[in-house]
Model the fold of this input.
Amino acid sequence: MPLTRDQIAKRAAQELEDGFLVNLGIGMPTLVANHIPVGPDGNPIEVWLQSENGLLGIGPFPTEDKVEADLINAGKQTVTALPGSSFFSSSDSFGMIRGGHIDMCILGAMQVAQNGDIANWMIPGKMVKGMGGAMDLVAGVDKVVVMMEHVSKRGDAKILKECNLPLTGKAVVDMIISDLCVMVFDNEAKRFRVTELAEGVTADEIKQKTEAEILFADDLKTVEV
Done:
C-alpha cells in the first residue's frame, strides 16, 4: 500500500548523516525534522537543519504549549530551535547555500524528468507567492532528495520523460522518495533506478504510473519505515 506523508518523511530522514547541514523545503519535507535517525549511542545523530529565512538548528515541530509565534521557518510554520542554534539574515542564509556549505536539501516537486530535471516552483496561470530558495538550493547543495506523491490527484504521472512546467533546475535530482517507491539516479545510465518498493507495490504498478524511462535494481527491497 502507498506510504503516508509521514512515512515518506521517515524514509527521507534515513538519508541524513551525522554532522550534515540540511535544508528542508516547505510542505511535506518539513516533516523530516520529526524523524532524525538515532546513532549507535542511542541518541539522535547531530543534524543541523537550515531555513532560508535565517535559522540553522531547527528542531521538531512545537507542541501547542511550546509555540513561539516569532520563530518560523521559510514556509511560515512555527518551529523550535535546538541548543546551539544560530540566527542570521536571509542574505547570509543564501550565502551558505550558494557557497556550497549545505550538504543536502530535501524538496517537494510537481514534476521530475528522467534526466533529473525538477519543476517545483510554479504552475502557469496560478498565483505565485515567490520562487523561494529552491533554484539556489538545487544548484548549490551536494545532494538533492525529492519527496512526492508518485501521481497527481487526477492520476497523471509526475515522473516524466520531460517536465512541461517551468524548471527549477536541470539534471540536479539525486533521489526520489514517493509514496510508491524509492528511486536513485544512475549517473552512467542517466536514468532513475528503482531500488525500493512500498509494501504491496509491484514493479508493474510503477511502470504503469511512471512516464519516464526507468530502471529497476536486481535486488529490489521493501521500503522500511
